[in-house]
Amino acid sequence: MPLSFADIGVGLIANTIFVVELASQIAGNIDCFLHLVGNRSSIVLTSISLLTVTAINIERYFGVIHPFLHRTKVTTGKLLTFVILSWSTCGVVLGVSFFAHRPLTIFGAVVKLAFVAFTVFVYGKIALIVFSAKKQSNSFSRASILKSYSDESTETDSAPSSIEKRKGKLHFLAELKLAKSCFYIVICYVVCYSPAAVLLGAMRESFQGYDRILAVIWCTTLSMLNSTLNSVIFFWRSRQMRKEMMYAFKIKQRRRRNDEKSPNKLS
């Protein structure tokens, strides 16, 4: 839910300001205040989004690597507290940036570097756990676990412990499925923000004048696209929402065919 709010903020605020700024530049009416607000809103909202994804990565890390701590220590309240404190820090830095721009630039760079380092660590550990689990068991799949779970449920004596093991495996698979969705989100971040890091960071001196303006516009556009891609991924990963979408699409197609046939009936 917090990531959805962050994506809404990027979509409604940062994207809108960015489009208005580009339109004013095309029209020849360059507004310095609008550029100032657009620049700061993009950095702050991007940092908010990255910190929110970091909270999700923390939850996925404990859910897969430390399931016991995940059930007892990693609560919704603690994660929400982390998100609120992160957003509050971004707000404070935003206020300070109107007096000095350097703290905002440093803050944005630190958040991005920390996000990359922590993300590599989290999904590297998850990948190692998955590979080791597959090596230990060739039947580590949801179908095989459910089959063995139903078989064990008919036994006595040792059945409770066996059933608990199966439940633990099913919980592990569910956590892996959620981790896979979060990994797709991370891939979107890498794809959308890498051009800006390369062109405007490592290759900054290679672009000057008109070429630099084009690089900034396209890199910013791609970065803003990330929030939309996040929404699409979360939507498509939900089986119920996919079914509802296909159902609505079929209804629309049926109505369109009926509308196309109705003039022929009248004639």
Automatic annotation (TrEMBL):
PROSITE patterns from the xrefs? G_PROTEIN_RECEP_F1_1, G_PROTEIN_RECEP_F1_2
**Which compartments is it annotated to reside in?**
Cell membrane
UniProt keywords (A-Z) are: Cell membrane, G-protein coupled receptor, Membrane, Receptor, Transducer, Transmembrane, Transmembrane helix
| Principal localisation | membrane
Transmembrane segment boundaries: none
Q: Name one GO molecular function term.
A: G protein-coupled receptor activity
**Protein known as:** Histamine H2 receptor-like
What is the taxonomic lineage of the source species?
Eukaryota, Metazoa, Cnidaria, Anthozoa, Octocorallia
Family label? Belongs to the G-protein coupled receptor 1 family.
